[in-house]
Specification:
By secondary structure, the chain is an alpha+beta fold. It has five helices and four strands. The longest helix has 13 residues, at 66-78.
């Protein structure tokens, strides 16, 4: 089976690593009170990468260390407030794509306490970025 996997071209590998429900308190938003008080943002990440090298070696060096990645995403979310979740989502995608192993990423930013005058469950933006 290992020989068959190693013969599949990298572009056809459909491996995905998901980290969902990351919660951060940050000060993004257009309105003054959003910047002043901050609010909770939730982030979901789905990384497209080839996990075969790590599967063969059983070595963390051969894959994305998702603990380190989460720390980097935390910094991207919690620092340098921006107005729009579009800007924030792009910043997070750029952070993920700095890891050479990541071919593409899907980022969803949830803003469950957005200042909307209606009853709602969530406001979320999903973007897909690749190399």
């Amino acid at each position: 089976m290992t020989d068959q996997l190693s013969q599949i071209p990298d572009s056809r590998v459909g491996d995905r690593l998901a980290v969902r429900g990351l919660a951060f308190h940050a000060h993004h938003g257009v309105l003054d009170f959003e910047r002043r008080d901050g609010q909770e943002f939730l982030v979901d990440l789905v990384l497209d990468l080839d996990t075969r090298p790590a599967a063969r070696s059983d070595d963390l060096q051969d894959t994305v260390d998702y603990g380190t990645l989460v720390d980097e995403v935390r910094s991207a979310v919690e620092n340098d407030p921006v107005d729009l979740i579009e800007t924030l989502a792009q910043r997070i995608a750029d952070t993920c794509l700095r890891h050479a192993e990541v071919a593409a990423v899907e980022v969803t930013v949830h803003k469950p306490h957005a200042p909307i005058q209606a009853t709602f469950d969530d406001v979320a933006l999903t973007i897909n970025r690749s190399r």
